[in-house]
Amino acid sequence: MFFPKRAARRCGPIALALALATPAFASIDHRQAVQIALELDPESAAQRLEAEALEAGAVADSQWADPMLKFGVANLPTDSFAFDEQPMTQKLLGVSQQLPRGDSARLTGERGLLQAEASYANAADRELQLALAVNESFLQLSAQLERRQLLLENRKWLEQLVEYDRNRLATGEVQSQRLLQTQLALARIDDRLQTMDGDIDRARGELTRWIGEAAWQPVNTRLPDWPDTEAWLQARQLPVPPETIAGHPALDAAGAMVEAQSRNVALAHEAYKPQWKLELSYGQRQPTPMSDGADFASALISVDLPLFRQNRQDQRLAAARARESAGILQRQNLLQRLHGGLNSAAASAESLQSRRHLYRSQLLPTAEATAEALLQGYAANTADLDAVITARMEAIEAQIAALQLDYDYFRALARIRYYLAGAVPVDGK
């Protein structure tokens, strides 16, 4: 089963440098954001520490019980408290050892190790979930920043148009109504920019949850470089088979817990076996008028008898079997959920890729050409200003939509990478 080993994560020097001491002029990309989040995440560290605790506990639980030492006095007369008055008075020293019931010690240790394995796998799954959440949030923030940049660039065009109409108004070539129209379009752009600034701040605030103050640093909005995932997607035909996610750590964790429950079933079977206890003791006596004071040695064997099983052993066995069956069904449900999620992410990525191609090959060139043609017509007094502004705004919306498709496509790829456990399988399947 897949699970990364050992030691809880600590805040490393890279995370500290980026999250706490990033200079104001530096920029952060999606890979650095994920790395910071992994370094600073307390939950995965806690799960690894829990796994270490379970491993240590498994070693302890697989051992025999400690031997018991007993010492004292037996048959001491209470009228005189003399050791040499009665022949049965003894000073006792003994040791006893309780043996595990059947093979229960080994099974208990194996159960603890399997629970530790599940905890390690849960920590690995947590890291994959964290990487997915940070990638999606970071890509959304990057998309908002790029949309804002597009609006700023088009705002410059509207400013030039306003200045152009102001000059034409001064020479009497246009009426003031046209200048007001361009000024209104410019004001609408400014309103969208202010709304977008609020959205960007909220996105940064959400990212702060995972990477701290680094979320407020300048952002490198470059799209991720995931050629292996894109190649995997291009080679797939939907639906993707369930075997594709067979090595996912969440499934490994569920599988380990099913195995741990199977050890509980075996332990319930062991409860039908008797439990033995061995005891040795030595009694020292003093000579008395009636006895020469010979010492006594004793050896005892005790065994419990699990005779009344109906309300104890039988019920515990039934409970253990029910939990094992529930674990198997939960693992199957998890497999179906992960399989469905992978197919959904792959279908979304394919659809988004098709739309990206459509925008770049047809919609964007057409919208830009229309806006340019109407602008030239307006300069030659053959096109209406409303049509010019409408065409330009449609071109802006097309650019924004194409930009959002890019980032949505890579967000879908991020989900695919989660379901593929962070990397494309080596055999490409």
From TrEMBL:
Q: Report the SUPFAM superfamilies cross-referenced here.
A: Outer membrane efflux proteins (OEP) (SSF56954)
As given in the record, the signal peptide range reads 1-26
Q: Write down the InterPro entries for this protein, in alphabetical order.
A: MdtP/NodT-like
Q: Which UniProt keywords apply?
A: Signal
The GO terms this record gives for MF are:
efflux transmembrane transporter activity
Q: PANTHER family recorded for this chain?
A: BLR4935 PROTEIN, OUTER MEMBRANE CATION EFFLUX PROTEIN
Q: What is this protein called?
A: Outer membrane efflux protein
